[in-house]
Write a structure and sequence with these properties.
Largest sheet: 8 strands, antiparallel
Number of strands: 8
Membrane topology: Multi-pass membrane protein
Shape: elongated
Keywords: Cell membrane, Membrane, Transmembrane, Transmembrane helix
Order of helices and strands: HHHHEEEEEEEEHHHHH
Transmembrane segments: 12-37, 72-88, 108-125, 283-303, 309-326, 338-361
Strand content: 5-15%
Subcellular location: Cell membrane
């Protein structure tokens, strides 16, 4: 194996340009197709709300596209790898490069460099754009596509206990004493443990102590009577800090803020395995793009006229998709506590890095 990892500057730029163009082409194709399918299944719910129209459909698409880009960028890198390497192989360019003395790793080096830059851009895009879009979209979905939240600081679907009682809210906006809860439900339990009363309100605000429900409607389970009042204070044991902590969504919180939230959870003795696994996966997830050229490398070598090029492409695609299956399974096991969080996030990446290197060295080097 040659120690000079990169080929000439001209060849490096040529391969990198081919690769990045195909990544973008495949990504645009996947996102457009999946966005159209998503709109077909969701547009009915959006347009069912009075006043919603084309603007709301465009808003939904604008919030959904970043999520699709985040999810399918590694797939795009894998497919672009196979397409690029097959074309190079069929045009005998790989044979020419190897005849010039380049090793398999040197042939792949420009693709690995490009994929590494894609992974770096993906991390920044995920933490600056996708998290905000996810927070806003979840809050909008929680209101059943009613009023669009004015900012991405809105959180959705909070569930918190105050002793034996339960407080739920579909949306949480603001911070500190200015927190506003939307679509609030308060469940009061009897000493026997059964729910004795259910109180619903459009919104609630912090009044120190407790949360004041606006125009609450109370349903008494025992008497089956419904009453309405102007205001009611509940959850006097709940503070804004507890609400904010409970509203943490790892998919909607940037990497640097999620770490401090996990520390706060650990300080009060809460279980953090799921949050910690997703925190690590915010690093390993984008880095999977760097792995794809290595897993798809088998499509670059072997004679195109031997009839085995298609089989090699299928093997490369199989290795890539096997990584995504193992990665999702490991992350699920980490969320349930079956694996340590670090292992759940990084084991699939390290395992398939070794697999890809082993296949490349044993077959080509």
């Amino acid at each position: 194996m040659h120690l000079d990892f990169f080929p000439s500057r001209t060849l490096t730029l040529y391969l990198a340009k081919l690769f990045i163009v195909r990544i973008l082409a495949v990504l645009v194709m996947l996102v457009l197709v999946l966005m159209m399918l998503d709109l077909l299944s969701t547009s009915g719910e959006i347009l069912a709300v009075e006043g919603n129209g084309q603007g709301e459909l465009l808003t939904y698409a604008g919030l959904r596209v970043p999520q699709l880009v985040q999810r399918f960028l590694p797939y795009s890198v894998l497919l672009a790898t196979i397409i690029t390497l097959i074309a190079l192989n069929q045009n005998s360019e790989v044979i020419a490069m190897k005849a010039a003395g380049l090793s398999a790793h040197q042939v792949l080096a420009p693709l690995l460099l490009t994929a590494g830059l894609v992974a770096l851009v993906s991390f920044g895009f995920n933490e600056r754009v996708v998290t905000r879009a996810t927070a806003t979209l979840k809050a909008w979905e929680a209101t059943e596509f009613g009023a669009v939240p004015p900012d991405s600081d809105v959180k959705a679907n909070v569930y918190i206990t105050d002793g034996t009682n339960i407080l739920t809210a579909r949306t949480v906006a603001g911070t500190g004493a200015d927190i506003r809860l939307g679509d609030v439900t308060w469940y009061r339990r009897a000493p026997t443990g059964q729910i004795a009363e259910q109180v619903r309100a459009v919104s609630a605000s912090f009044v120190d102590p407790g949360w004041q429900l606006e125009n609450p409607q109370s349903f008494d389970i025992t008497t089956a009577n419904t009453t309405t009042s102007e205001a009611m204070v509940v959850g006097e044991g709940l503070t804004p800090a507890q609400i904010e902590l409970e509203a943490i969504d790892p998919d909607a919180v940037p990497f640097w803020r999620l770490g401090s939230a996990i520390d706060s959870y650990e300080a009060i003795g809460r279980r953090t395995a799921e949050l910690r696994a997703k925190w690590w996966h915010k690093l390993s997830g984008p880095l999977s793009a760097f792995l794809m050229p290595l897993l798809g490398a088998v499509a670059a070598f072997g004679l195109a006229r031997s009839g085995q090029l298609f089989i090699r492409a299928v093997i490369g695609m199989g290795l890539g998709f096997a990584y995504f299956v193992v990665d999702n399974a490991a992350l699920a096991m980490g969320s349930f506590g079956g694996y340590p969080p670090f292992l759940a996030a990084w084991a699939p990446f390290l395992l398939f890095l070794l697999v890809g290197e082993t296949v490349l060295i044993r077959t080509e080097e």
